[in-house]
Amino acid sequence: MEEKNMNELLKKAEVLIEALPYIQRFNRKIIVVKYGGSAMVDEELKQHVIQDVTLLKLVGFKPIIVHGGGKEISRWVEKAGMEPEFVNGLRKAEAREQARKEEAERLERERIAEEQRRIRQAKKEKERKQRNKRVKAFFFNKKNLALEFATSDLVGDSVDSVVEEIKEAGFNNYKTVPIRDIYVGNTKYVGEVEQVLINGQSWLAEGTMVPYDAEIIITFHVKKEFEFPYSARQMINRDFAQLASEFVGIGFTEVYTLPLKDLTTGWIKKERAVQQVLIEGIDTIKKGMPIEHDKKITIQYHSFKDR
Fold first, then answer.
1. CB atoms within 10 A of CB 206
2. Which of 237, 247, 226 lies closest to 276, judged by CA?
3. Residues 211-238, mean pLDDT to the nearest whole number
4. Separation CA 136–CA 73 (nearest Å)
């Protein structure tokens, strides 16, 4: 059985080596795949096509499927309540386009489902390898794993990549702690790791033996937030300029005012009075809600029409 598996792996390696020059040459290029009718009705063949198209995308190509499938098209046309019509042996365009749309949507759903299945399988395989590392460490090394990285090397990387590296190394007791300090003039980027602590220590060399359940704390940078001072109702009829000044004073950096030009006399609705405030286009605002400093705040206020 092992010899058979090894032969299969060698065959796959040979195919990849042979294909490598083409992968490099056509990387990021659009590849048109003609998906014929026979491949669309054979379930096994269909799975192979989906897998191959997914592989093309994974290695860097941009596959576009151009499909046929006369029988399938006729079936979808009838399902849509239309009757297939032919002119000189050619399918009438309106019905064909409707069927193609339906078929393209179905193929895309199948491709996405296959890609998601592959992602789930890859995730399960990773988790299995991580568990195996912990099992071996438990029985043979008093729960200790050798660090596959120096903690200093993780500083400055993205928090997602650091978490992934820690998980792949076999450690399972980690947490992330955001530092809300990114503001105007700050050179840090969102998600940048500031420090990695392992059992309270910030500088550990690669190869250091550490228990797989050691406490690991990853601190990383995110945008500074401020508590919003008012509810939506509390801002209505306030002077727009005064309200804008308050927001800027708190620390919000993207504050805009928008005159509605809706007044004729100004007897009922007063000039400069706030009609509503939007945060990133949303008006469901609650007092005390945390808002990132650079969220767009738009103050709409009553003003006279252009004269």
1. 12
2. 237
3. 96
4. 55
HSE (CB half, 13 Å, CA atoms) of 50?
20
Q: What is the pLDDT of residues 177-207, one digit of tens each?
A: 999 999 999 999 999 999 999 999 999 999 9
Distances in Å between the alpha carbon of 129 and those of 78, 140, 169, 298?
50, 16, 9, 51
Of the two residues 106 and 92, the one the predictor is more confident about is: 106
> Which residue has tokens 């709409």?
300
Tokens of 197: 């602590």
The beta-carbon contacts of 23-31 under 8 Å, at least 24 apart in sequence, are 23/59, 23/60, 26/61, 27/59, 27/60, 27/61, 28/60, 28/61, 28/62, 29/61, 29/62, 30/61, 30/62, 30/63, 30/64, 31/56, 31/61, 31/62, 31/63, 31/64
Give the separation between CA 149 and CA 193, rounded to whole angstroms.
15
Whether pTM exceeds 0.70: no
* Lookup: tokens for 234: 């509390």
> What's the CA gap between 178 and 222, in Å, rounded?
6
How far is Cα 49 from Cα 31, in angstroms, rounded to an integer? 14
CA distance 228 to 277: 12
